[in-house]
Amino acid sequence: MHFALTDEQSAIQETALSFARERIAPGASEWDETSHFPVDVIRETAALGMAAIYVDAEKGGSGLSRLDGALIFEALAYGCPAISSYISIHNMVAWMVSRYGTPEQIAEWLPPLASMDWLASYCLTEPGAGSDAAALSTTARRDGDDYVLDGTKQFISGAGATDFYFVFARTGGHGAGGISAFAIMKETPGLSFGPNERKMGWNAQPTRQVILDNCRIPARNLIGGVEGQGFKFAMSGLDGGRINIGACSLGAAWSALDKARAYVFERKAFGSELATFQSVQFKVADMATDLEAARLMIYRAADALDRADPGATMYSAMAKRYATDLGFGICNEALQLHGGYGYLKDYGLEKLVRDLRVHQILEGTNEIMRVVVSRKVLGGNRG
Ligand SMILES: Cc1cc2nc3c(=O)[nH]c(=O)nc-3n(C[C@H](O)[C@H](O)[C@H](O)COP(=O)(O)OP(=O)(O)OC[C@H]3O[C@@H](n4cnc5c(N)ncnc54)[C@H](O)[C@@H]3O)c2cc1C
């Protein structure tokens, strides 16, 4: 077991952190307040190899590992978790195209995804099917050389601003086996969007319904050219997605801890710096310990996925639950250490708390993470 980053991984982390500090952090507060999705800044990450991070180099990706990806998303989230997490969704779609697409689909779609000429959205959730995604009711009906899709996707990140929609729809009977996956371009007639949802956080990226109304696409847009595989694709994408969203929580918590470390030396109460109070010292110690524990779990899960460890799905679920819960707690404690100033927008902490709250809900809620873990731990003996 080896716990140090390689020189290459340190360089990757440093590149992402510099980008976060120079290009993301300065705009983060304004993007949050004005609900601005900075696609120009996001597209700059493609030139750094961050648009198809763990896609094989032969297929046009960066050929890096999941662990490299976690380091990148953690570092980008140091600047803004809402931006980093959108980039993680884009990467999830690029990887699914590379992993499950036909050679023709990979040749046609991957280059514009890897260059971010096309930004991507992942469309699984529906108004009536969230945690129970296998109950989705959007239909895809074969009609000659086409499929015709009807239904509504709910809470889709980037929707309306993105170009490429990876959509899950039902081609067969009930349950997971009846689900297939499709690629739909933004301009396709019959594809439209709901209004941008008004949210607690993640305001730097839009969240909209994706509405499919008699939406006709060529049959060659069926991912992998086979029906009934969509749910398998969706779930395998989510293993990595969960690691990435946990990594985004790490980056935000890291930034919150740095802010708190500086503030406890600046602020005085009862005649001395906050840092002189042992309860404050202990709080900072606990925050740093929690961050380190969560970081180890995320890196371990990423490594398990890289090695195709049979426990990778469980480790991803454990790490997602742990890192998003602890990351939220660390940001909230950093806010508390800032007293009333932490509650003001100027210090950037209330934004981190708002942004990180949703990490406990999406890519599978933290209750669903416990469902995944308990299935593995208890197997068929759950009573
Ligand atoms: C800002 C935002 C962005 C999102 N982006 C995307 C996206 O890009 N693409 C996409 O497809 N989806 C996206 N989602 C959807 C997200 O993945 C779902 O919201 C999430 O999976 C939960 O589904 P739900 O909201 O329908 O909650 P529900 O499934 O209705 O759950 C409600 C509550 O019941 C609990 N619960 C449900 N089942 C169980 C159970 N078996 N055991 C214990 N508790 C249970 C849940 O944990 C939760 O607390 C996004 C959501 C948000 C808020």
* Total helical elements: 11
The coarse silhouette is: globular
CATH class categorisation of the largest domain: Mainly Alpha
Estimated share of beta-strand residues: 5-15%
The helix/strand series, from N terminus to C terminus, equals: HHHHHEEEEEEEHEEHHHHH
Low-confidence parts, pLDDT < 50 over ≥5 residues?
none
Q: In total, how many domains does the architecture comprise?
A: 3
Task: Tell me the Rg in angstroms.
Answer: 21 Å
Might you state the CATH topology name of the largest domain? Butyryl-CoA Dehydrogenase, subunit A, domain 3
Largest sheet at a glance? Answer: 4 strands, antiparallel
What strand order characterises the main sheet? 2-3-7-6
Any guess at the CATH architecture of the largest domain? Answer: Up-down Bundle
Helix content: 40-55%
The molecules bound to the chains, other than polymers, are: flavin-adenine dinucleotide
Give the class from helix and strand content and strand pairing: alpha+beta
Count of distinct strands:
9
